[in-house]
Specification:
The protein is 36% helix and 23% strand. By secondary structure, the chain is of the alpha+beta class. It folds into four domains: 85 residues, Arc Repressor Mutant, subunit A, CATH 1.10.10; 36 residues, no CATH class; 67 residues, SH3 type barrels (Roll), CATH 2.30.30; 80 residues, Alpha-Beta Plaits (2-Layer Sandwich), CATH 3.30.70. Strands 8-7-6-5-9 form a five-stranded antiparallel sheet, covered by helices on one side. A four-stranded antiparallel sheet has the order 11-12-10-13. Strands 1-3 form a two-stranded antiparallel sheet. The radius of gyration is 29 Å and the shape is elongated. The N terminus and C terminus are likely disordered. This is Helix-turn-helix transcriptional regulator. InterPro entries: CBASS_pafABC_assoc_protein (IPR051534), PafC-like (IPR028349), PafC_HTH (IPR043839), WCX_dom (IPR057727), WYL_dom (IPR026881).
């Protein structure tokens, strides 16, 4: 039985449909009208009208006129006798830009990583997408394997605790380098850029806290169910402001400003020597160091003085480590 639609497609919808319909037919190679109608959720007669329209479409040749090979062509016998669509000649489609082998490899590697996550195990859609990327690349993509990191293993354990509603225990070292054992009620997992975070009720702090997954170790999923915390409101965003936050004025390259959107104290920007001067709100100076290191040459700390001094001292300490390794005069071994 063919699919039915209460109202016909409007003009904008028809264009979107046709742009999807031709690649669909080329991929399927042979498809009957009812199957195509069910796939797109429209009536069988609309599919037949679209096929007739495609058969009158093409790309004019060098003379500006249409020759037989400049138009789409279908197997009319199959279409009229059996209601089956077969495109026997198509134009222009092969001229569409394709991904390079390197681009396809990068995307496939990302999909492999997603496929390895517990919630995507055995995902047919991800597998099909990887096959399409491989087939559609301009050359054969390089074979890549994405190795599981320690953070990936931790994420699997955390997801197990969240899904089972059980408490989680782990060793945690915060941004200040202070470590300790934590027992938490896991609430949800969030990501920020390349980092993963667990949002959980911490029984040590007796409040909702964010824990960076790569700073967690020795994770144990407890048999104890999580407690109910109706009086605790789980924030919608990963980071929230507090009274202990401080403001830092920085000059940032315009192209890097979107990367700092989560830290902006307000929308005020002033252009200074080709850069944008903005104010960031951060929880501690250690976060500022990490932010500057992640955008080398794109962010300059303007104030306050203690923030400049902290970042400068941190950078000088890092540079001194390279100097000790490279300067023979500073080595305990005699020169040769």
């Amino acid at each position: 039985m063919s699919a039915k639609r209460a109202r016909p497609l409007k003009a904008p919808d028809k264009l979107v449909f046709l742009l999807s319909f031709v690649p669909y037919l080329l991929e399927q190679q042979v498809v009957d009208v009812d199957e195509a109608a069910a796939h797109f959720g429209i009536g069988a007669e609309e599919i037949r009208d679209a096929v007739r329209l495609i058969a009158t479409s093409g790309l004019p040749g060098a003379t500006g006129t249409y020759q037989p090979n400049d138009l789409f062509d279908i197997d009319w016998d199959s279409f009229e006798d059996d209601d089956v669509i077969v495109i026997v000649h198509h134009v222009a489609i092969d001229d569409a830009p394709r991904l390079s082998a390197r681009e396809a490899s990068a995307l496939i590697a990302g999909l492999q990583y997603l496929s390895a996550l517990p919630e995507n195990a055995g995902s047919a859609s991800l597998a099909a997408l990887m096959q399409k990327l491989t087939a559609g690349a301009s050359a054969a993509p390089s074979r890549l394997a994405v190795a599981e990191s320690e953070a990936d293993a931790s994420l699997a354990r955390i997801r197990e605790a969240v899904a089972g509603g059980r408490q989680l225990e782990f060793d945690y070292r915060n941004a200040l380098g202070v470590g300790g054992r934590r027992r938490v009620d896991p609430l949800r997992i969030l990501s920020q850029d390349a980092d993963w975070y667990l949002q959980a009720y911490c029984h040590t702090r007796e409040d909702v806290r964010n824990f960076r997954v790569d700073r967690m170790s020795d994770l144990v999923v407890s048999e104890v169910p999580i407690d109910e915390h109706p009086e605790r409101e789980v924030p919608d965003t990963l980071f929230q402001t507090s009274e202990s936050d401080f403001d830092v004025v920085v000059d940032v390259a315009p192209e890097a400003l979107p990367l700092l959107a989560d830290y902006l104290a307000d929308s005020t920007t002033v252009e200074v020597d080709g850069r944008l001067r903005v104010t960031l709100r951060l929880a501690h100076v250690h976060g500022l160091k990490r932010l500057v290191a992640g955008l080398p040459g794109l962010v300059t700390v303007v104030g306050p003085p203690e923030a400049r001094a902290a970042v400068a001292g941190w950078a000088e300490a890092g540079l001194a480590g390279y100097s000790d390794a490279e300067d023979p005069a500073r080595s305990d071994d005699p020169p040769r």
